[in-house]
Design brief:
With about 425 residues, the chain is mostly helical. The chain has 19 helices and no strands. The chain is globular.
């Protein structure tokens, strides 16, 4: 947790910024390249098509080649493509580069979660995933001021938006070198653990794997998982959550610009406010959910809060819409972190790279439909109010569907070496 988690957090921040930074250059690309609202929305969403198509294959290759090599490869390729966004020349190149960026990033999030299953016992993974997911909220806060500041750079015949893509993309390329030296694929390669600690941890992970195999669920095929109504429901719920998150992510800077004659840096600072509020809300919801263990209730409550904010944001007043989005962010960002413990509880012995990738890839298709639909509405009606109403309705429906999910905890039939070692120490 001390040696690797900080690196994963930095990587997630870079990952998130590189995928959502186009939200800050919508107006600039429209002026410089003639990319309209509909094309912007479609291009924003095409990222998630490439991401979904290559997510599961990427994680299969991660298992084959090891986390160190494959996660480093993911970072390098996404950094190169993110930097190449600076040379977008029109709608066609915009579409192609966004699609390629999705392919390049595919497998990162579920790959890291799978990495946890290879290094952490079951009772430690929930905390690790929660910390890692906190990186998305941190990235949302940092992306505005960082991107806004970079947009002010001029020189070498490049516009500010081109410098933003270049700097943020090459940061990820540089970070992959750090990843290569710090990550280890096998427990026995970890120099910070003694030989005894390596043996005990490795034995514990293998004991959990043996338990999964005994239950007959460790190697279920994706087609078999899709026959399970609960897993289909998990995919649909995550899809609904991601719809709301990415609609706000890609269009919030546009809403902020309507508040007045603001500079890019001011837009970036204001853009950070909803996500800063959401970080505190995520922490509070996590404490409440841990104290009163009713995960479905807390997730439903978060979705209803998101819906209320979305409905209120259609008032037509830009300032009030911004305040309402801040309120809505409390709900949909908390919902994103509250969601994962529910399928983890149901899939207790089946949390592996392919399953996590399946839910994540299908859910992330919400990142395609939301910006594309909003772009179409904005170009043809001059407003995104209809899209906000639609997202509010979907959030309410998702809140109701949450109560049809189940938790199916598996009683452990084996004693793990780490547990035995702790008992001996006591």
């Amino acid at each position: 947790m001390r040696h690797v988690m900080p690196l994963f957090l930095v990587m997630f921040v870079a990952n998130y910024i590189d995928r959502v930074n186009i939200g800050f250059v919508n107006a600039h690309m429209q002026v410089d390249l003639g990319i309209g609202a509909a094309a912007y929305g479609l291009g924003s969403g095409l990222f998630f098509v490439g991401y979904a198509l290559f997510e599961v294959p990427s994680n299969i290759l991660l298992v084959k080649y090891g986390a160190r090599a494959w996660i480093t490869r993911i970072m390098f390729t996404w950094g190169i493509v993110a930097a190449a966004m600076a040379f977008t020349a029109g709608e066609r190149s915009f579409y192609v580069l966004r699609f390629l960026l999705g392919i390049a990033e595919a497998g990162f999030f579920p790959g890291v979660v799978f990495y946890f299953t290879q290094w952490l016992p079951q009772n430690e993974r929930g905390k690790a995933v929660a910390i890692f997911l906190g990186g998305s909220a941190l990235a949302s806060v940092l992306s505005g001021p960082i991107s806004g500041a970079l947009l002010s750079i001029r020189g070498l015949g490049l516009h500010g938006w081109q410098w933003m893509f270049l700097v943020e993309g090459f940061f990820s390329v540089c970070l992959c070198a750090v990843c290569w030296f710090m990550l280890k694929s096998r427990i026995h390669d970890a120099a910070w653990l003694s030989r005894d600690e390596q043996d005990v941890l490795d034995a514990t992970i293998k004991a959990e794997q043996a338990e999964r195999e005994a239950l007959g669920t460790a190697h279920m095929r994706v087609t078999g998982l899709l026959k399970d109504p609960q897993i289909v429901l998990f995919c649909l719920l995550y899809f609904a959550i991601q719809l709301t998150i990415y609609a706000a992510t890609f269009w919030l800077p546009t809403i902020i610009r309507k508040m007045g004659n603001l500079t890019d840096f001011q837009v970036g600072l204001l853009n950070a406010i909803p996500w800063l509020i959401a970080m505190g809300a995520m922490y509070c919801f996590a404490l409440l959910s841990a104290k009163w263990r009713h995960p479905q209730f807390w997730l439903a409550l978060a979705l209803l809060i998101a819906a209320g904010g979305l409905f209120a944001s259609t008032s037509g007043n830009p300032v009030w819409s911004f305040v309402a989005i801040c309120f809505s962010a409390i709900g949909f960002k908390a919902a994103a972190s509250l969601f994962w413990p529910i399928p983890q509880g149901y899939l207790d012995a089946r949390v592996a790279a392919g399953v996590i990738a399946l839910i994540n890839s299908i859910g992330n298709l919400g990142g395609f439909f939301a910006p594309a639909a909003f772009g179409y509405l904005h170009q043809h009606t001059g407003s995104i109010s209809g899209g906000l109403y639609g997202l509010g309705v979907i959030s309410v429906m998702a809140a109701g569907a949450v109560f049809f999910t189940k938790n199916r905890r598996v009683d452990r039939a084996v004693r793990h070496p780490i547990d035995e070692r702790r008992n001996q120490a006591v």
